[in-house]
Amino acid sequence: MIVKGLIFVAGLALLVTACGPASHVVQSGSAIEYARCMRTHGVANWPDPNAQGVFDKSKLTSLQLGASDARIAAAQGACRGFLPNGGSGPTAAQLQQEKEQGLEFARCVRAHGVPTFPDPGSDGRIPDPATVGIDQGSPTFQAANRACGKDRPSYIPTNAAYDAYARTH
């Protein structure tokens, strides 16, 4: 249970920081170094992050990682320095920036033909579009997602990423 919480915090920290105006190379580099560190500290199956510096949470179970919860927790402690803010999560300013970016994206998507696209919630994040009945594979949504790409938060997949996911699930 502790490992799931730590993995969530690590993933969230990387995910949120990737939303900011900082270079994606720097953020992805931090995530890559974190992955290398985790492997060096005995979690051999720790995956590399995607291009946005985000880890696929579905691959972060102790069974898939091939390590005990204790080993994973120890590695996370040793590697925390590679996480933005030392793994303590986003700052209030980063959370506000993420919420503003999400709001701009939501407004843009609605203006491009998806009138039911939700604003960010109280946590600052846009809910999964599927949970509010939006088909991310539809031509209308994909056109809006493409048109609004400059404001798209990193946790909202590009059309290519969504299509790749949809083909395998």
Overview of the structural elements:
The protein is mainly alpha-helical and 169 residues long. The protein has 2 domains: 86 residues, no CATH class; 77 residues, no CATH class. Helices cover 51% and strands 0% of the residues. The protein contains 7 helices and no strands. Helix 1 packs parallel to helix 4 and helix 2 packs across helix 4. The longest helix is centred in the middle third of the chain and has 20 residues.
Give the SSE layout.
Blueprint lengths: L1 H16 L6 H17 L21 H4 L3 H11 L12 H20 L27 H9 L11 H10 L1
Question: What does the overall shape look like?
Answer: globular
Q: What radius of gyration results from the CA coordinates? A: 17 Å
Q: What profile does the largest beta sheet have?
A: none
Give the count of helical stretches. 7
* Low-confidence sequence ranges: 1-28
The number of E-state strands comes to: 0
Order of helices and strands: HHHHHHH
Number of domains: 2
Strand content: under 5%
Report the structural category. mainly alpha
Helicity, in percent?
40-55%
On the 0 to 100 scale, the average pLDDT is 80
Main attributes of the structure:
single chain, 169 residues, mainly alpha, 2 domains, globular, disordered N terminus
Give a concise summary.
With 169 residues, the protein is mainly α. The protein has 7 helices and no strands. It has 2 domains: 2-87, no CATH class; 92-168, no CATH class.
